[in-house]
């Protein structure tokens, strides 16, 4: 993994993508399209972002996909646009641009374990403040962004210990993120969605932009293309370059739209 990724400008990245005859633009949601918020419910897209994404998806030769750990139903509510690919639950749920939905995950026992872990997480938290348990049905997120760091460490360590003692724990995997610990089915990750979309849109320039540990699977899956880490500081990553923030991602999208509009005139 590279550490000192080159910092790319929105202008340079938009120029590269605009020059491609066909483009497959894949974007994470939290921390990439919108800033990380105190709670998931507060991380909502601005109307300007929705407008740009909608216009880009309607341009010839441009495919836009949002790939997130959130439920597909959440993405549908947050980005209510026809013509986009929406991928939820780290690749387990895929909505095509025409609205057709594929569900790649069918392990009922893993779903049952997630339900058990919901209760275990709440037991570990007890009455402590600053925590949030997000049960996504086929994955679970334990948020501790607003918790005392010392208490957060205690709760997380206790949860991991209880998780590891479950008989079928090997069906799932733990994935640390930005002030969150996620539990997801083993083998389900954003790299699966990237490979699926690249096969479906073979010949297009594939671009993936993401900010978190869960996006590393997508970076690794994209052997030939453009992978962009969204981070204000360098960190080890399989990405090829870096943008500093969601604000820079938004600027790049607006520039890309403007350049593509000029091309189709």
Structure description:
The protein has 265 residues and is an alpha/beta fold. It folds into two domains: 10-105 and 188-264, Rossmann fold; 108-185, Alpha-Beta Plaits. Helix content is 37%, strand content 20%. It is built from eight helices and twelve strands. The chain has helices at residues 10-18, 47-58, 72-78, 108-125, 149-164, 190-200, 216-221, 246-264; strands at residues 23-27, 62-67, 85-88, 93-95, 101-103, 132-135, 140-143, 172-176, 180-185, 205-210, 226-230, 241-243. An eight-stranded mixed beta sheet has the order 5-4-3-2-1-10-11-12, sandwiched between helices. Strands 6-7-9-8 form a four-stranded antiparallel beta sheet, with helices on one face. Strand 6 (132-135) and strand 7 (140-143) form a beta hairpin. Helix 1 packs parallel to helix 8 (246-264), helix 2 (47-58) runs parallel beside helix 8 and helix 4 (108-125) packs antiparallel against helix 5 (149-164). The longest helix has 19 residues, at 246-264. Pfam families: Trehalose_PPase. Its EC number is 3.1.3.12. It is an enzyme of class 3 (hydrolase). Its cofactor is Mg(2+). It catalyses: alpha,alpha-trehalose 6-phosphate + H2O = alpha,alpha-trehalose + phosphate.
């Amino acid at each position: 993994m590279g550490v000192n990724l080159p910092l790319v400008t929105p202008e340079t990245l938009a120029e590269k993508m605009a020059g491609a005859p066909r483009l497959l633009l894949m974007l994470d949601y939290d921390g990439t399209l919108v800033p990380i918020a105190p709670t998931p419910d507060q991380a909502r897209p601005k109307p300007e972002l929705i407008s740009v994404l909608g216009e880009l998806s309607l341009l010839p030769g441009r495919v836009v996909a949002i790939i997130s750990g959130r439920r597909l139903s959440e993405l549908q509510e947050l980005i209510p646009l026809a013509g986009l690919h929406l991928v939820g639950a780290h690749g387990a749920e895929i909505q095509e641009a025409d609205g057709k939905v594929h569900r790649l995950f069918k392990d009922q026992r893993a779903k049952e374990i997630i339900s058990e872990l919901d209760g275990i997480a709440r037991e570990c938290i007890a009455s402590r403040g600053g925590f949030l348990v997000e049960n996504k049905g086929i994955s679970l997120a334990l948020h501790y962004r607003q918790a005392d760091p010392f208490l957060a460490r205690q709760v997380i360590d206790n949860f991991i210990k209880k998780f590891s003692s479950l008989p079928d724990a090997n069906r799932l995997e733990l994935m640390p993120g930005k002030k969150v610990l996620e539990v997801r089915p083993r083998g389900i990750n954003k790299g699966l969605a990237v490979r699926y979309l690249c096969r479906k849109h073979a010949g297009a320039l594939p671009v993936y932009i993401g900010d978190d540990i869960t996006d590393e699977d997508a970076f690794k899956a994209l052997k030939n293309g453009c992978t962009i880490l969204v981070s204000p500081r360098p960190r080890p990553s399989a990405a090829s370059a870096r943008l500093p923030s969601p604000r820079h991602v938004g600027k790049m999208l607006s520039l890309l739209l403007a350049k593509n509009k000029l091309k189709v005139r």
